User: Which sequence fits this backbone?
């Protein structure tokens, strides 16, 4: 084989590898920013006092149950403010999940996993099941979320 062609191929491949790495780093930086800023609105009013009063009760409910939904109504002003200020919630978007980005979805999935640990009988798989109906998540995206949980959270 012609050495010039091999060198050209190697050069283009190395450039491609660097380009892909640069693109991945864009997501890494966005995710690091989200990790630092996640749910900061809960540390201020109007969310702080409402969540402080009701979170212990909310933790005793089963996610998705009628009691859970009743609790959401009690904290509605805080929830509405929270959704308006946090893009990892489908409710923050006009078309829900359909308007979200991959970064939003990763933060959302991470949030569901963490939140599941705060509710009675909560877990990430149950959250995916309940929220697939709640947010009209397509079977394909549901599979991707479940595959991600299995691969990265070993659950």
Assistant:
């Amino acid at each position: 084989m012609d050495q010039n062609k091999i060198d050209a191929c190697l050069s283009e491949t190395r450039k491609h590898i660097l380009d892909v790495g640069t693109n991945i780093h864009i997501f890494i930086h966005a995710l690091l920013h989200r990790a630092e800023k996640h749910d900061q609105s809960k540390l201020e009013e109007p969310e702080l006092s409402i969540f402080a009063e009701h979170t212990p009760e909310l933790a005793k409910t089963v996610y998705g149950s009628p009691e859970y939904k009743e609790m959401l109504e009690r904290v509605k002003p805080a929830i509405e403010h929270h959704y308006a200020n946090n893009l990892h919630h489908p409710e923050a978007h006009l078309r829900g999940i359909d308007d979200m980005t991959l970064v939003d979805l990763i933060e959302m999935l991470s949030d569901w996993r963490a939140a599941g640990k705060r509710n009675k009988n909560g877990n990430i798989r149950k959250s995916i099941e309940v929220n697939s109906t709640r947010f009209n998540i397509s079977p394909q995206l549901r599979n991707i979320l479940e595959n991600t949980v299995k691969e990265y959270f070993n659950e």
Q: What stands out?
A: The radius of gyration is 20 Å. Helices lie at 3-37, 47-59, 66-74, 76-84, 102-116, 124-134, 139-153. Residues 27 and 103 are 7 Å apart (CA to CA). The first helix runs from residue 3 to 37.
